[in-house]
Amino acid sequence: MKKLLFTSLVLSTLLSNAAFATQTIKANVNGMVCAFCAQGIEKKMRALSQTKDVYVNLKQRVVAVELKEGQTLSNDKVKDLIKDAGYEVTSIEVTEHPIAHIKAGYEATEKEAK
Q1: How many CB atoms lie within 10 A of CB 71?
Q2: Separation CA 36–CA 31 (nearest Å)
């Protein structure tokens, strides 16, 4: 009985933590060629109530939007906002990595390339 209670407690803890995991939408974007382009997209994404943080990497043509805990945002909404800003989304994915992790990965890749 104790094993069953312990297992139930562990599973419920894991499931409740998974429900509040970080969710980041990462889009590859064509057409961003200058800092002004990146600023425009960043401003649109930050204006969303669901947004916790935004990272735009002009060199890699990536836009990442980290959502607030418990919030959701459809991939189509992100695509539409970027398209309305005048750019094309070539791919989009959802990850559980926070912006800091994504940013560190791109910065490490750029340092290695130098």
Answers
A1: 13
A2: 12
- Nearest 5°: the CA angle 31, 34, 104 is 90
Lowest mean pLDDT among 7-11, 38-42, 91-95: 7-11
Domain with 31, as residue range(s), is 24-113
Instruction: Give the pLDDT confidence of 49-83 residue by residue, as tens digits.
Output: 999 999 999 999 999 999 999 999 999 999 999 99
* In a domain? residue 3: no
Residue 91's Cβ-count burial label (10 Å; 0-12, 13-18, 19+) is exposed
Q: List the Cα angle 91/18/5 in 5-degree steps.
A: 155
- pTM beyond 0.90: the answer is no
If one counts the domains in the chain, the total is 1
